[in-house]
Amino acid sequence: MDNWYNNTGWKTPPLDATDGFALPGTEDDWHGVALNVENTFVVYLFLGSNSLTGDIPPEIGDLTHLTYISLYNNQLTGSIPAELGNLINLTYLNLYGNQLTDSIPPELGNLTNLTELNLFANQLTGDIPTELSNLTELLTLHLSYNQLTGSIPTWLENLTHHLRALFLGSNQLTGTIPTWLGNLTNLTMLDLGGNQLTGDIPPELGNLTNLTELSLGWNQLTGSIPPELGNLIHLTDLSFDDNQLTGSIPPELGNLINLTYLTFNDNQLTGSIPPELGNLINLSDISLYNNQLTGSIPPELGNLTNLTYLRLYDNQLTGSIPPELCHLTNLTVILLQNNQLTGPIPGEIVNLQSLYYNASDFCSNYLFTDDPVVRDFLNSRQSSGEWESCQLVLCIADLEGNDNDVDGVDLAVLANNSSLIDLTTFAENFGSIDCL
Prior knowledge:
It contains four helices and 22 strands. It is mainly β.
């Protein structure tokens, strides 16, 4: 206790000879403790971020009038005492950010008045106990960042009328995403990311029209992105990164006008980037990198004037950089490397003065400029080296009479691209060159 951040009142003399604490009857003056109106029972225990160590004493289970316990962000160890199940008046239990181990005690299922259970960021193991199905008043269940196993519990379907936030991310859950999750229509936040979930994304999730956050990233999900998700018009965060999703990006996602984060990177998505994404004017981050996207960059992305991160690298995008992207004056990072972009860099790109130095990347494309101002600007923002030195060079001579692809580039498209320059122009801009 001497190491607590705040132990006011707990050790105020005279001390009880039996336990070394301040005398009984003074508890209302102890930091983090509140009594009922009659000053007869402890009803409130708030010792969050207070440098607590050791185990949670099972004797807390004797304080049966408690309605609120918050011990978050300490260094508590050991298991969660089963005796907490005696606190049948408890409405709030927050133990997040400790080092608690072992399984979640099934006795917590006795806490039928609980509206929030937060065990986030501990080291809890085992399945999520079935007994928690008794917690029918729950508004928030936060179990993310543990080592929980098993499948998504079927009893969660019983919480249809109240549950607002369900956080099960960053565990070791397996199995598929159940279709009945689409019945939890009061949900505003759903985090299942960072597990080992497989199978398709159920289109029934499109029924969760109150959702503001949907996180399914870092799983092993397959299949396509359901167009029904375009119904989730209150979404601000949509994360499907690091899965094995295929198919195209549904244009219906252009309905999600409140979206600020869209992360679909590290999948196997194909097709073109829908121009409807240009409707998402509140986006600050769009990450579509490391997919198999084709076609040109839609000029409609120039409408996303709140965008700070644009990451489209490691795809198969073609065509030129649309000058409309130069309207994105809040951009801090633009990553377009390892595509098949061609032609001149728009001169207006120098308007992107918010770009971080040495943080953007245009390498491994077929881009050029003859504007020294543009050249110097891009060199100052390129993540490493000079941006021109890492461009690919495709000679006009290589296109004539060649029906094959060169380095994965469709020669027929490039041959008709007015932005493709001849060897003389390349030589003027690059100096010595080697034809592919």
